[in-house]
Protein: FabD/lysophospholipase-like protein
Organism: Leucogyrophana mollusca
Amino acid sequence: MLATLLAASTSLPLLAAAQSAANLAYTPVTGACPAGFTLVRQAGTPGNQTLSPDEAAYISGRKSNVLPNAWKTYLANLQATNATLPAYVSSILGGESNGEYPNFGIACSGGGWRATMFGAGVLNFLDARNTSAATLGTGGLLQAAQYLSGLSGGANLVGSLAQADFPPIEILAFGDNSADPTNAWGGWLAQINQQDPYTNATMNDEYIQELIEEISGKYHAGFAVSYNDVTSRDNGRHFVNGTTADNFADNTLLHGAGYLWSAVANVSTFASYSQPFPILVATLLSPNGNMSTLIPGGTFIVPQSNPIMEMNVYEMGSYDPTLAAFAPMKYLGTTNESVCVTNYDQIGTVVGASGDWNTIYNTSESTLVNSYVYPVVTALNATLPQTNIVLDSAVFANPFNGAAMKGQFIDAEESIIMMSDGASDGEAVPLQPLLVKARGLDTILAVDSNQDYATEYWSAGGSLINVQNRISTLFPTAYSFPPVPTNTSEFIAQNLSTRPSFFGCDSSTEAPLVIYLANGGPPRNGQTPLTNQQPGNVSLAETQAILDQVYDIAAQGYPTDATALTDPEWPACLACAVVDRARNRTGTERSGVCATCMTRYCWDGSTLGLEATTTGGASALSRSGWGAAGLAAVSLFAVVGGYL
Ligand SMILES: *[C@@H]1O[C@H](CO)[C@@H](O)[C@H](O)[C@H]1NC(C)=O
Ligand SMILES: *[C@@H]1O[C@H](CO)[C@@H](O)[C@H](O)[C@H]1NC(C)=O
Ligand SMILES: *[C@@H]1O[C@H](CO)[C@@H](O)[C@H](O)[C@H]1NC(C)=O
Ligand SMILES: *[C@@H]1O[C@H](CO)[C@@H](O)[C@H](O)[C@H]1NC(C)=O
Ligand SMILES: *[C@@H]1O[C@H](CO)[C@@H](O)[C@H](O)[C@H]1NC(C)=O
Ligand SMILES: *[C@@H]1O[C@H](CO)[C@@H](O)[C@H](O)[C@H]1NC(C)=O
Ligand SMILES: *[C@@H]1O[C@H](CO)[C@@H](O)[C@H](O)[C@H]1NC(C)=O
Ligand SMILES: *[C@@H]1O[C@H](CO)[C@@H](O)[C@H](O)[C@H]1NC(C)=O
Ligand SMILES: *[C@@H]1O[C@H](CO)[C@@H](O)[C@H](O)[C@H]1NC(C)=O
Ligand SMILES: *[C@@H]1O[C@H](CO)[C@@H](O)[C@H](O)[C@H]1NC(C)=O
Ligand SMILES: *[C@@H]1O[C@H](CO)[C@@H](O)[C@H](O)[C@H]1NC(C)=O
Ligand SMILES: *[C@@H]1O[C@H](CO)[C@@H](O)[C@H](O)[C@H]1NC(C)=O
């Protein structure tokens, strides 16, 4: 593979003419705003909160045209396993309970390539198109989800999946070999390192210089450019259509430039409401944040009171009360209602903002100088010099600048807003968009492969703990979240991350039920663990092996017999959790396998497997404040010379 790259690249101009096709396609376009254009949409607060009309129309279209059949397919897969399900499961999923369907969403955490692949393996386990998952009785849940959120490594997954037209996971990972290699989806190319694709250091330098050349049009058009724009062009080669291993080094191609996040609305599965609504999450890196809400002791750099930013294909903004406003994605880059910018919302840029971890290395000059960030920002600033710009974050022209936003948004007086990795505030599982009350989700599958252990790459609930603290301390009325333990030691002691755990089963609040499926430890089948690492470049065979092992981890469930490899009831138990809130609305009591499953998989406030003794509720358990996450405060994911 690399031999091909090396050979190909020597015959191609590395420093192409100043205006390569990718450079032109990456340059924002400025023009008059359309008639009636509104830059900022006030999203309201839970009492009067609204979704964008486009999103509301998408969800409504999905609910009427797609989800009834999706739930039927899932139910048919479940029934084919001959599990003895209580009648209410079939009635709800079959559409025979007065239209009471589950309102289901999936969140895919950050954690670099590990998270991209862990999330993908779990989605495979939920995908009706995967014959193993269909036979197991779990395939079909992916098709039935309303929302799919992704952060950092998980944003690479969710972003690439949405723009590639929602292909099956095997095609997402390895590409669509039958299609046009310059336009179609060519796979993640995880075998090619993201910052250093070559074994030759000179060629790696030339590669970075090529990426910088591709963003020079944006710079010369008067827009600030940063490390994230460089990342964007690399992301374009890994997570956007048009690049294969064979054409990777051909700098005459677009490599994803000009592919816009807003234009994902035009891919066929989106136009037919056939994919879960994709949302990418970043944090706001602000000079005006309240640093006393920063989780101490770790590598976090964004205080929890800063708005969590979401980027969906229609809008960028936040439902947090500290912003509660959105700007149209298609006009990202626009700062007033007369001059409109388009072509700024490049997929690589938006996905990159969710995973821009580079700011973590800028704690001191010596740390920065010794990091992988330094040669890139140095080369960037040497070629495209800028002053008064933080070069190592993602920088977006600020649409929320102005008198109207003063007092509502900390950066109302900044001309640029900066974004950092979605996990920079300690919340690596992108739950916040799925907790927005106007979205009305009642069941969330939280997929977590973030690193919570000090020296190993296993997850132990740190993000859930931090979400719990953020909501209970800062946003108790904006969001509801079910009780979870207050420290990672407790997650570890109770094995809550080494097997699926349900939170909020008996909560009397409006909190959704959270199904937590984490990368908490090796698979039970005794295979050599593959998911406790941070891979930099992963061969195709290794990628397949990781996807297969994650599938096994997702499928093992929580066996009652300690020596068993899998819980034969797990697919049924998962269905019991998915329908549980809808069950409650129909006034039906839990029964049959669901009664025992919900007892076994639910965390009731003290331990797993006991009947609930309290009503749960967001205030029923005592909370500790900042820093309660214990081990979770340790670095999220170490990076060895690569992007997240
Ligand atoms: C929502 O309600 C709040 C408080 O009642 C009010 O300040 C705000 O203007 C309202 N927002 C919208 C978008 O209606
Ligand atoms: C389910 O039961 C049917 C009828 O007895 C049988 O043909 C089928 O093989 C069973 N399926 C499974 C997965 O056990
Ligand atoms: C990417 O390519 C796939 C085919 O591999 C196609 O279905 C999809 O529409 C393309 N996406 C975009 C944004 O052009
Ligand atoms: C590295 O690549 C450059 C061309 O970009 C070439 O001149 C040099 O010989 C290569 N070095 C090695 C060790 O292959
Ligand atoms: C979708 O395609 C139509 C027709 O080509 C075009 O007019 C529209 O601008 C596109 N939408 C987006 C969001 O790119
Ligand atoms: C900053 O956060 C702390 C902790 O929540 C709070 O006590 C303080 O009032 C906040 N300061 C400002 C200016 O909002
Ligand atoms: C609107 O923004 C553009 C930059 O995109 C700027 O050139 C122009 O002066 C602004 N117009 C007003 C009225 O502020
Ligand atoms: C970028 O270069 C300019 C000089 O061209 C310098 O003033 C500025 O400080 C540099 N920025 C960074 C972040 O090094
Ligand atoms: C490092 O951070 C400081 C403080 O935010 C900022 O002024 C500086 O520009 C950053 N350096 C780079 C290379 O972005
Ligand atoms: C973690 O939480 C448990 C249960 O609340 C508590 O007993 C324990 O002391 C806590 N451990 C740490 C390290 O904070
Ligand atoms: C529904 O949930 C509420 C709140 O937990 C509970 O009080 C009620 O008993 C439940 N109803 C049924 C039928 O399970
Ligand atoms: C289903 O997923 C498993 C595990 O990743 C994989 O081995 C298998 O090839 C997939 N099947 C299909 C049809 O995609």
Q: What stands out?
A: The domain at 21-32+38-640 is CATH 3.40.1090.10 (Cytosolic phospholipase A2 catalytic domain).
